[in-house]
Structures are given as structure tokens and as C-alpha cells.
Amino acid sequence: MPKTAQDGDVQTPEPTKPSGEDVLIQEGDIAGDYLEKLLDVLDFDGDIDLDVEGGRAIVSIDGGEDLNKLVGDKGSVLESLQELTRLAVQQASGNRSRLMLDIAGWRQGRRDELTELGKQTADDVKASGEPVRLRPMTPFERKVVHDAVATVKGVVSESEGEEPRRQVVVLPDN
Q1: What's 6's DSSP letter?
Q2: What is the pTM of this model?
């Protein structure tokens, strides 16, 4: 006669924890639902795309005519919406989220500009031997610049100052 769980000898498998990517996909789904409701309330059109890249959920909203209003001056509204979306994910999942939000391709365009700025500044510092201090930037912007500078041999970068005036300084690598 086969043993049953009631007999005490059959072991029930422990529930499996979702993989890291599964957790990020879940974060993206929660964020997508939250942002979809927001777009409905605002009566804005937009397509929501979810992805996982570099150990974080990436949520993009594209396609609507009014979406630039959700970016704001220098991405200020976008940064605020990203924080609200992270809080919504945290409330629903119980986990702190590092998700990245992009609206109307603004963040990707900004990434391209900052990559060029970082490489050009690194080349200038390498040629002149003099350090260059860039204007204050958000953590996202600083990371992009640091990554770009790291591709140029002979220079290094560091962040100095306190938020919101924190700056990237590019220096010759002695």
C-alpha cells in the first residue's frame, strides 16, 4: 500500500523560491499595472513594455502624444514617477525595487548624450592632464558618465559633493 502524507513518511517538497529573474518579471508586471492605471486616470495613450536587463526590471512607456508631459523638464517628472512606481512595487511585493522607468525614449536618449559627454571629457582630460568637474547630476546620470569614462584608458572618475549637487570629476590616472 502506498504511503501518504498522513502516514508521516512522505516528505512534502518545500516551496521553491522564485529565481531572481522571476522576481524582476513580477516587479515589472506590478509596475506595468500601476502605470497602466495612471495612464487611464490621465487619459493618456501609451504602450507599456517590460524587460529585464542588468539585474533590474526595465519598464518603458512609448507611443502616446502626451507622454513628454510625463518626462518634464530635464526628466524631473520621470524621476518622480519612477520613485512612485518603485514604491507601488515595494508595497505590493514587500521588496525594495530598483526598477528603471523610461518614457518616450527620453532616458535612452539621455544615456546616449551622457555617454558621449563622458567619453569626450575623458579624452579632453587625457590630452590636457587637467581634471574636469562636470555639473551636478542625478545618480542615473553619474553612473552613465562613470561607465563611459571607464572605457578610456589613462583617466578615472569619481563623484564628489552632496546630493543634489553631487558631481562627477574626471581626473588623469596617475
Answers
A1: G
A2: 0.77
